[in-house]
Amino acid sequence: MPGYDPTLDESLFSAVWETDVERLTVSVYSYNKGTKKLQISRESQGPSGELRFAKLGRITKEEVEGILPLMQEALSHME
Question: Number of C-alpha atoms within 13 angstroms, CB side, residue 36?
Answer without folding.
Answer: 12
